[in-house]
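seq:
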Amino acid sequence: MTVLPNRICALTGVEIPIIQAPMTFIAGADLAAAVSNAGGLGIIETTSDQGRADLRRVRDLTDRPVGANIALLFNRDPAMVDILVDNNITFVTTSAGDASLFVDRLHDAGINVFHVVGTLADAKKAVDAGVDGLVVEGVEGGGFKNRFGASTMVLLPLIAANVDVPVVAAGGICDARSMAAAFVLGAEGVQMGTRFLACADSPVHVNFKDAVLEADETSTVMLPLGGRRMMRVIRTPAADRHDASGAPAADALNSVQQLYFDGDMDASVANTGQVPGRISTLPSAAEIIADMWTGCREVLASTARQWASSDAQ
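struct:
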């Protein structure tokens, strides 16, 4: 009998507790299959028409477990659950809304549900709604954020200490050392967006990937979307113009596919997390996952040995 490493692996059916983030337009069949075939969990985004179509197409590319995301701000159609069942999806993350909207219906369909949270209050609310686990995302992550949100270093141990469900860490994670740190802080798995965006299997244009490689640790900015909502993007000239104007940047997303897939870096804003300054290569998803999983365990073991020997002296 195969012994799975932890509860994340048991609930998702994967060998390695690394999950690919549901980046809109980017998290399609090709990238998800590459991640799942490497032993992690690929996620299909269901916000776009293409993403929903890829739920079926991904089955031509992998027989491994694949998950899906429902962004509740954009998709509240109960028929979505039937689509997931028809395509043999047994793991879902919900985000950008109230977890209770779908959790019972998803459970009735035999689907495990993790909800993405950015505060302790939201985490407790999702657990009370009956979710199976949480994706805890600090403000280092890309995409929509709360302007008052906490960093992963603060948020992850806080939530892990106050809930009984398994936790996946997201935001600021891109390699073995940051994965090991997440485990020490209470996570049982990690979710990554930017690291998989900047890999050989990602569908985005090389200009976008090059922008990630050229960035340093100061190369992202949080743009306002209205109220408490913000959006983390790379500091391109287009982003700097939006930042200087102070106006909500949501309209820029109307042409985001021109940036993602045509490579026009001035057409929109480039969503990433804060980690591009730590990314310098474009390996395959399989290489990223293998190196992270091996390296994470080596980091944890060597750190334990170091401090054990220190105590003995």
